[in-house]
Specification:
By secondary structure, the chain is α+β, with helices and mostly antiparallel strands. It folds into three domains: 82 residues, Trypsin-like serine proteases (Thrombin, subunit H, Beta Barrel); 90 residues, Thrombin, subunit H, CATH 2.40.10.10; 96 residues, PDZ domain (Pdz3 Domain, Roll). A hairpin with a 4-residue loop joins β10 and β11. The longest helix is centred in the first third of the chain and has 77 residues. The N and C termini lie far apart (137 Å).
Length: 379
């Protein structure tokens, strides 16, 4: 009996020992797994840290490269900015009181190497008038206004000078809200010529009312920017980060800070293209004054239009004078092109020539009429 009890104790001890060995092995395996996981995580974090540092360095290098490219583009754009005055003047105009009024001082942008310059109509004057253009090298040339439109406040001046550095035209229809832009011009006259200010596109398709002593003018489809625009900047360039011309600085609200406006460049492209290819621009004319839905609110808040152009006035003896169209009608389409802004209509007509025939879709009392119109020439 003693032997049997001793044998049982021995078996019990062996079982306990085996259990201890198994538990020990399990603990060792668990501990080794945790160590490997920690090592793997540490290695991953180290690799990730190294990757992030590399990515950060690459991003900094790319940003620096982009910033340098932008700086070079703007520096090149500055060379195409000119001074424009209605009276020949010399010296620093900042020492002349009311220089912009007395000299008609403003800015312009060279848009071709053959001497075509884009500016504001209120800076250069009407078609066939003359002005004086000061180039980057300080030389002054007499300029002839070959085209002007006071309704959009743009004019094109030609000087007898070739091989000029000019500004490449951008696409004002591809710009986006908050894009970086730069205003370049001659604020306060030639003493501060070629000043560059940076801002963003604050809004697009703006319509503003400009009041003067004789009439109210409504400018439509403008680019709004917070880039600083001062007296003398009129007619200067609004360029994008690539240094391409997207607008001509035109007006500034005098009673508000940080609000300036530019006429989008796309509206003038058909005229520039024809001047370059043919050396002249034969302007076609429809003979109406109209407003889109943004501008009509200034004239009569009771007039509601969703799309199209409200016909405010038909010019006597113009192409539409004898046709079935009257004030209050809505032009919704020209040929196959829907029209929602007055500048859309202007740009379409700029692509036509006198005596071309277009089809106007005219709406009156929810009834549409299609009119064949022979465009006239505008002198």
């Amino acid at each position: 009996m003693y032997y049997e009890e001793k044998k049982k104790n021995k078996e019990r001890l062996m079982m306990y020992g085996l259990m201890i060995v198994i538990i020990t092995l399990l603990l060792v395996l668990i501990l080794r797994t945790e160590v490997n996981q920690v090592a793997s995580t540490t290695e991953y974090k180290a690799e990730k840290l190294n990757f992030d540092e590399t990515t950060s360095d690459q991003s900094k290098e790319e940003n620096n490269t982009q910033s340098l490219a932008n700086t070079e583009a703007i520096s090149d754009a500055v060379k195409a900015i000119v001074g424009i005055s209605k009276l020949k003047q010399s010296g620093s105009s900042i020492f002349v009181n009311n220089a912009e009024e007395k000299l008609g001082l403003g800015s312009g942008v060279i848009i071709t190497d053959s001497g075509y310059i884009l500016t504001n109509q209120h800076v250069a004057g009407n078609k066939y008038s003359s002005c004086y253009v000061t180039l980057d090298d300080g030389n002054v040339y007499e300029g002839n206004v070959v085209w002007a439109d006071n309704n959009i406040d743009l004019a094109i001046v030609k000087i007898n000078k070739a091989s000029l550095e000019y500004l490449e035209l951008g696409d004002s229809e591809s710009i986006k809200l908050a894009d970086d832009v730069y205003a370049i011009g001659n604020p306060l006259g030639l003493a501060f010529q070629k000043t560059v200010t940076k801002g963003i596109i604050s809004a697009m398709n703006r319509t503003i009312k400009i009041e003067d002593e004789t009439q109210n003018v409504y400018m439509e489809d403008l680019i709004q920017t917070d880039a600083t625009i001062n007296e003398g900047n009129s007619g200067g360039a609004l360029v994008d980060a690539k240094g391409q011309l997207i607008g001509i600085n035109s007006v500034k609200i005098s009673n508000a800070e940080g609000i300036g406006f530019a006429v989008p460049i796309n509206i003038i492209k058909p005229i520039i293209n024809q001047l370059v290819s043919e050396g002249k621009f034969d302007e076609a004319w429809l003979g109406i004054y109209g407003y889109d839905k943004e501008a009509i609110q200034y004239l009569d808040a009771n007039i509601k239009i969703e799309n199209g152009i409200y016909v405010a006035q038909i010019v006597p003896e113009g192409p539409l004078a004898t046709l079935d169209i009257k004030e209050g009608d809505i032009i919704t389409q020209i040929d196959d092109t829907p029209i929602s802004k007055m500048n859309d209509l202007k740009k379409y007509i700029y692509n036509k020539k006198p005596e071309d025939i277009v089809k106007l879709h005219v709406q009156r009392n929810e009834k549409e009429t299609i009119l064949d119109v022979k465009l006239a020439g505008k002198t």
